[in-house]
Amino acid sequence: MREVADVPGSTGRAATRTSRVDLLLSQPKILRWLGLNEQEVVAWLAAEYGEDDDETPAARRLQPEDGPAVIARPLRHGDVRTVMDIFHGLGERSRRFRFNGPKPCLSRSELRRLATVDERRQALVAYLEDDPRPVAIARLVRDGDSAEIAFAVVDTYQRRGIGSALVSQLLADARAAGITEITALVSSGNTAALALLRRVTNALAVRHEGSDLAVRAAIA
Asked: Domain residues of the chain, as ranges?
């Protein structure tokens, strides 16, 4: 599921983290000496310059029909660690479906984009109760009364209703914010994603766009 790619600048601790990422990645000899790659650098700095403790997002408990209860929290701006944790929990097939093609790793710009939260971009992350590891993420990018959405569930917890519960909550937040329809670009073989969207939206319209499927649905 592809998303809009433009990203605004970061602020505060996220900006501090970003500047240090740029500094380290501009020194390939140092990276080779340290034995680090791009994703390891970002993860290390995420831990070092992580989220502020006094900015804990509001949590909501969701109960999927066929799976364990999860806690849904908004993604913090600049939280690349959570984005990477989700990515590492996806197998090759899941990554292909999520990014509409092969995706062995995330680039620096992709990590930054996926961790951006602002007035147009928001995301919800699902955690099992009493477990700090994220198991799913759903995000949207708003454009007027419409929003493009994308979502992913780590392989271990797929087909347990977690994705449906998380996307339903994200769409409820979107409705409350005045969004009336959503769009998504889904891999043609990703029948699970299409089935999920049919369950949680109204009047789903699907058309082919190259080898993928362009989805549009009313949510109001």
From this structure: 60-75+117-218
201 by DSSP, 3-state: which?
coil
User: What's the farthest any 2 CA atoms get from each other in the chain?
Assistant: 55
Determine the pLDDT at residue 174: 96
192: part of which helix (H) or strand (E)? helix 191-200
Looking at domain 60-75+117-218, its CATH superfamily turns out to be Gcn5-related N-acetyltransferase (GNAT) (3.40.630.30)
Using an 8 Å Cβ cutoff, are 206 and 213 in contact? Answer: yes
| pTM of the predicted model as reported, rounded to 2 decimal places | 0.78
Type and span of the H or E element at 70: strand 70-74
Instruction: List Cβ<8 Å contacts ≥24 apart for 29-38.
Output: 37/105, 38/105, 38/107, 38/108
